[in-house]
Amino acid sequence: MRKADRLFEIIETMRVSTRAVTAAELSAELNVSERTIYRDVAGLQGQGVPIEGEAGIGYVLRPGFHMPPLMFTLEELEAIVLGARLASQRGDTQLEKAADRVLAKVKSVVPDQMRHRMDRVALYAPPIYGAAAETDDMAQIRNCIREEYKISVGYLDLKGRVTERVIWPVAVAFFAESTLIAAWCELRNDFRHFRIDRIKEIQVLDEKFNGGGGRLLQSWEQQVTRRYEG
User: Fold this and answer.
1) Angle at 88 between CA 103 and CA 204, to 5 degrees
2) Tell me, what's the pLDDT at 230?
């Protein structure tokens, strides 16, 4: 979690709490050391955030403090709404719910005028009728990309044969008629693209792969770029 996000979560936790919140509780909630919480709270107090209390006793946020509202340009609001609508139409159930939560969170912190504009954004992402149905495994696949877990799939090739592949998923690409998993294929020792509708079996393995801190994804992006630009 970025420091800015952590500071925001500290303030929000104190805001909704009906009692003093200890550094130990914040430490467990945010998965950082208590020493880090002490420094964060001291930093917030130094910036004028009205936090009262001390280490070992707990902290409270004095009533009446409000974070400044988020401000967006009209184009930024339209990008947020359209992106959420696209995710809602093309993603799995969890991604659809996440898109709804994003819009709800943004609406809760922007000024009333901006909130009303969000309701009037005339950019839509209608469902693609006739497109291949997505699977409920997409949320699992997205998690494997984040956590770098290998996946074993039974894949139907163009000749109608099902082959067993162990892949290292690095990205998901949404096209009009299909959704692809971009992955390093251990069988081919190269990057390959797997259509979701051709995956007949899927199993998340206990073994992880090393994405090199994003370098594997960059290698795939470079390969795709060379292919289409060359």
Assistant:
1) 115
2) 61
